[in-house]
Design goal:
The protein is built from 8 helices and 19 strands. By secondary structure, the protein is of the alpha+beta class. Strands 1, 4, 7, 8, 9, 11, 12, 13, 15, 18 and 19 form an 11-stranded mixed β-sheet that branches. A hairpin with a 2-residue loop joins strand 5 and strand 6. It is flat and about 65 Å long. The mean pLDDT is 87.
């Protein structure tokens, strides 16, 4: 059987610690060190480049080729640059020198917020938007149409009003939210009856008002005391947030080097992403930030499903 050249996977991830995907600069205002955000919605995200780099680095260590953890550069003696024999170089690409380079066969996209934890008088709840849940192939039932978007929809029983941090909303009704079968598990059971759906315009305000913000200070190594004027703040996606990230296989050559553990490039990526549960992604890793856990199995679309749906859309 000829292996598929194209395949789409969607991962569900849970933050085990606060995650700080840094924006690469400073700003005046609420915090000094801000995190990466989507330009249109201003919602926090974990850039695909961060996930791609972490997955490659951790997969390289699992494969016992730490020299292939980076893409390499001209004159790099530690990088093997042999995609015919190295699953890491084949999957993620490499640059050995000007005559030896290759692009990878895996596209890793940004991780987007799906369910965001917020404190309420009813206890912790997880806030989301119907459109985001549908995009992730969740099933929503009892969704009113039309829906007063100044109110919230809840999976909590007997809830008429609910505060989401500083914001108080009336409940417009009770709905049911079900994930794809591959994501059913203990993590889902914890949040299934504590979900709140709001409009897209409210979601951004709720998320940005409830991000974790910490304060730190640089320490003088000689005195062991705080440095004068070295106080700074930074924000993070809080613990217990759910995110989804997409990975696409675009494997035209089809000459993947076989290994006992990894049969396709998608196996390499999954192994690398799985190690983030222990080794973290983003900044502040030495301060207890950055661990993400993969929930269940990735939701998968085959080459036939991808091109079959596209073909049906262009039929007259």
């Amino acid at each position: 059987m000829t292996p598929e050249r194209y395949k789409h996977q969607r991962y569900l991830m849970l933050t085990l610690d606060p995650v700080h995907p840094g924006a690469g600069g400073y700003r005046l205002g609420r915090v000094d060190n801000s995190i990466a955000r989507e330009p249109g919605t201003r919602l926090p995200k974990i850039p695909g480049s961060s996930l791609h780099g972490a997955a490659r680095s951790y997969a390289a260590y699992l494969y016992e080729k730490p020299g292939c953890a980076g893409q390499g550069q001209q004159g790099s003696s530690k990088h093997c640059g042999q995609p015919a024999d190295c699953p890491i170089c084949y999957t993620f690409g490499y640059i050995k020198d000007k005559n030896s380079m290759s692009s990878g066969v895996i596209n890793v996209f940004d991780a987007q917020l799906l369910l965001f934890p917020v404190h309420s008088l009813a206890g912790p709840v997880w806030v989301s938007v119907p459109a985001r849940l549908r995009d992730a192939e969740f099933t929503l039932t009892n969704l009113p149409d039309p829906w007063d978007e100044e109110k919230a929809l809840v999976t909590l029983k007997g809830c008429e009003r609910l505060n989401l941090g500083w914001l108080m909303l009336d409940a417009a009704g009770q709905v049911e939210v079900q994930p794809p079968e591959v994501w059913h598990g203990e993590e889902w059971k914890t949040v299934a009856h504590r979900i709140v759906l709001v409009s897209a315009s409210l979601f951004s305000h709720i998320v940005n008002s409830n991000l974790e913000v910490r304060t730190s200070v640089a320490i003088n190594p000689e005195t062991g005391a705080a440095e004068e004027g070295a106080l700074y703040t930074y924000e993070a996606i809080p613990r217990a947030a759910f995110l989804t990230a997409e990975v696409v296989l675009d494997d035209y050559p089809q000459e993947f080097p076989q290994d006992e553990r990894w049969k396709t490039p998608l196996d390499v990526v999954k192994a690398g992403l799985g190690m983030i549960e222990y080794l973290s992604v983003g900044g502040m890793g030495t301060r207890g930030f950055g661990r993400l856990k993969l929930i269940g199995q990735p939701l998968e679309k085959s080459q036939q499903q991808i091109f079959g749906s596209l073909s049906s859309e262009v039929q007259p």
